[in-house]
């Protein structure tokens, strides 16, 4: 970690310095382009000024020659006129090209071209009149039209030159500002580069000084982790693809009675299993590598001295970037004392269930007598009883029947705890539909709708799960009988290594603060006058689900219905 931090600082400092140098190079290049562009604009402006000055100069020369010719009639004075007309046209064309990107200058040059044409035409007319005689030429000159045209040309050329000078000044100012900004930025970034280099050096120096302390801290931490691993209150080990021990902690070695050298790389895990478990491990270990491990698997292992003790194993698997198995991470707990305690509890439960069964069975005889004598009394002496006597006799009969139902439920509850679980894979759709159809027979006069969603396959005892669905569906039908239309919805989904099943109804619901009482024996949230029952049905559901390794819970809202959930493992644990 320290090495990575050290390299990170070097890389960050190098990137920062390289970025600054790159920025300086790019800025210098862009600035040189701007400077070159400014020089081009200066040359452009000077060229525009040159052509404008030449046009004005040629016009002045032509006008001077015109005056000389008028006075002397000497044709040599016409040389500027003869040579200047064509040259002026060339200068005007150059001006148009140079200012083609400037709309105002283009317009001004068009006006200047028109003024120059009119000026040349006027001079030509004066010369033609002079060839006829002095008086005609003098009259034209006296109109001062030539002077006005000349003044117009001077104004247009002056405006043209002034705008070019203003543009040049603006461009030069922008260029100077950009150059100044670049200069300041260049100085600032040079200073920043120097500071970064100094800071990186100081940081690296400090990091190198800390590295020795960090290495020492890391060594101590590794020793502490190793101590926690070796002296944990449970055994830890790792197995490779073939089942050989790759790692094992001291706690597990002490449990087994072996040394580290005797186990790692030399023994397979099946070597410490009791002989009856070894074939099962060899068959299931490859599957466990793909499944990702197991959770709380019970088995028995053999110590070096030959003694056997029970353990609980849990593990996960480690894979590389390509998904290839590397090793297991396994936990082994010696649960000898727990197993003894569980055996005692199991024996007590068995005795309690036997007692419950015996008591329930023995209670049937006096109940039958009470029911029988009550019927005799009703049939033989009913006419002699008054209304109060008949009412009391009816109460005796009803309570005898209720007691009989309660005894039946107790017997069912007892049998659920004793019955052996025979698991198999099956889809519960058919089972649920069969249970619903049977229960619906006694509810023909009710409007009931069953919505059965996709049911995930279950690995459980079908006969016991049938009892679960009977109790849950009958419960949903019973507590929604006051609704105009009963809606029962059954769904399932996979969550992790469990399948969660849910049955919802739109019945009377319940207060969530009493939800913890729902799955206890004889606990009811509604009185028997509203809804019949003994309070054993949900307790049976809880016991069956718990024996399958699942959980039960419920959610509800008063007058809005209830949802009952239970989970089952996705599959029976594989051995590792």
Fold and architecture overview:
- The radius of gyration is 54 Å and the shape is elongated.
- With 576 residues, it is an alpha+beta fold.
- The chain has four domains: 201 residues, Four Helix Bundle (Hemerythrin (Met), subunit A), CATH 1.20.120; 100 residues, Beta-Lactamase; 83 residues, Helix Hairpins; 154 residues, 2-Layer Sandwich (Heat Shock Protein 90).
- Helices cover 63% and strands 15% of the residues.
- A hairpin with a 5-residue loop joins strand 1 and strand 2.
- It has a five-stranded antiparallel β-sheet with strand order 2-1-5-4-3, with helices on both faces. Strands 7-9-10-12-11 form a five-stranded mixed β-sheet. A two-stranded antiparallel ribbon has the order 6-8.
